[in-house]
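Researcher: Please predict.
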Amino acid sequence: MADNTASFSGSIPEFYDRDLGPVFFADWAKAMADRVAAHAPERVLETAAGTGIVTRVLRDRLPPRGSLISTDLNAPMLEVARRKISPGEKVEFQPADATSLPFGDASFDAVVCQFGIMFFPDKDKGYGEAFRVLKPGGRFHFSVWDDHRYNPTGRIAHQVIGSFFPKDPPPFYAVPYGYTQLDAIRDSVERAGFQELTVEVMRTDHKLASAADFARGLVYGNPTIDQIRARGGVDPDAVVSALTDAFEREVAPRGGLLPLQVILFETRRPN
């Protein structure tokens, strides 16, 4: 069975933003925005922007004169992102494929992509497009999730959801945590023409306010819900219930804390 791991449509964006955003994305958005703003770029492109969690923080960190174009392959995600930006703020929203960007060469001072490149079907094209649209000296900032050893969320979600479909488990949670080989990433970045790649591993323990809300987001807030429905025979709410129990067991000995670990990258187009 073919599964689309990059389609975030229907009600998915709302669940993604409400139930997953505070756990998965908000803290890392601040770390990413701080790194981008440290170089005071005036024209910034964000790819795989999702529901605008980075967009909002980045707009606050950029110089007042700076402009930001926020893009995502999935237009419904950007509709949620638009609500976070007030009229008059220098943010444009545009559906776009990060592996085939509709912008001219040397158009931006910085390109930003938080937790998106893992989903690119051709990652070399993604790096190549980021390089092409950057001005000489421009910087590409991107991040990925570290693997299941450091992120129990991915392991638990993959195992629990898969237990309902032993012959054909939904593959979504194998994707976000499967792009962690630093040498391969470095090779791709350098093939695109970038120089001076820096790598930083960051870890935090997030206080999980509601295992039930988080479990609901893990099922309904990404293409997993479409993969479950396509297979049939299983009530998605039963999967949510099983995940809730699993995460309560996971965080109870940790005082309610959920480990999260990411890898942040920064590289530069030569002058």
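Model: Strands lie at 43-46, 67-72, 91-95, 108-114, 134-145, 195-207, 257-268.
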